[in-house]
């Protein structure tokens, strides 16, 4: 099935961009493979653990671990070339975002979850991998820093869910949701569209105000 | 039921204080909602995942996600006012601590867990949300920094468990446990009572001593 | 059984070295206990949550929590002495690595998982505790920084799995795998054998290249 092929390509692409992040932190080859695999598969894993949906995708299909590990190791060889293809990887990341979102919605819908959980499951699948990558790299998650990323995932999930609710054919709705999501994300990259930020400077910047 | 009402109010209060933490890090509006929701619901989620207690609270009652998200967004509008109400939010956080602890104990007791797991389940429910908030904010968890917080949760859980073991009526024990826990936490805030710290300075401060 | 005795000793040793890490960050006594317990039990917990293997080890045997907590508290008293025994603790950590790996493989094999998942389960059990410790301490995981650690876990798991596949007696295979794994890890410590690192310096060091 087409969705599955794109899903595997997106897994490899996510693993490769995460491997670059590992390289920027001088991680060893093992760390590169772990960071790539966690980033690529972490969203789906988090979704399945939260929904109690066992076995996890990569436990059922361990070959996916080989895909993400191979992609991460391959990155070590081709890092310099990837730099020139940066726009292509940003677009592949956008493809991953919408594909993972739709895969996540599918899992929740098959479990008969209500609309809010379907959308959240799609967003978790699309976005959490990058959050785990940033935690392992000891960064504040990029996801919260203004980029139009999670919002794209939410919109894709809404179109996909409500399109099917309105009786449209599932395949058509999937393609429409993916195209709109991908276009939105591409526009956000090109025109640097950002979410508004909440900038709060406490009057007293003391430690005790942390809680 | 009274406990449930207080539980929802505490969820909103935890989400609001976490939203302020997000604002101090200039997160975008989406990040504010995620940080608020993860902080408010993360303790119960961690408990349920560790105990294998599915479905999770917010998957069963997705409306709770709306409460935490709305509370976080509302914070953006009223941040300046909240600063003046800081003591009230500290007290609401104390209410949340004891209520979440008791809710967590209830879940473990209904599963027939032994005493140690009941107390740990209560503490996880009361305390882990703040740990997740600090990890996402890239801080060392405030929970480990000396405040009398987890200890209050442990004491509350012990009173609640052993009170019922001794045959006292559940409702009375719950109220007593909550009042004692809340009082302890308030005293700890007012008198800045702290846990002793373990200060260890290695003779050789080398990298290799990390492991 | 011998494996179980060594397992409990290793739990205590892992908890004690993590407690030292907590002391270097001036955590309070509660934080010391949590960091010790999470480091010692976190690998097995992560494995069980990912495999959907309930109840977790420490939920079934809450006494293990007492072991890790007592070991962590004990560390506060004997930190100065431990420094002189540093080599012993490094060796106990190596024992823990191979024992946890084999325990993890056993769990996955009893569930009938395929080879790749058995090896990954062993590695998760052996290595993830330290990653959780580093995340809670707000460090980039030491595991990814070049030490021959996860590789030792992988080799131990492979010997253990394939030895049994080849029809050798389980106990013999276990002892051989443990001895080889322990020897490899000790050699890596003594001769400072390291994994190669992936050092990637982006041509443009801008923020936008993060994704």
Automatic annotation (TrEMBL), chains A, B, C:
Protein species of origin: Pelagibacterium lentulum
Glycine transporter domain: residues covered: 8-79, 91-163
Main location: membrane
Coiled coil region boundaries: none
Cellular localisation: Cell membrane
Keyword Transmembrane annotated: yes
Lineage, uppermost ranks: Bacteria, Pseudomonadati, Pseudomonadota, Alphaproteobacteria, Hyphomicrobiales
Transmembrane segments: 63-81, 88-109, 115-136, 148-166, 172-191
Protein name, as recorded: Membrane protein
Family: Belongs to the UPF0126 family.
Entry keyword set: Cell membrane, Membrane, Signal, Transmembrane, Transmembrane helix
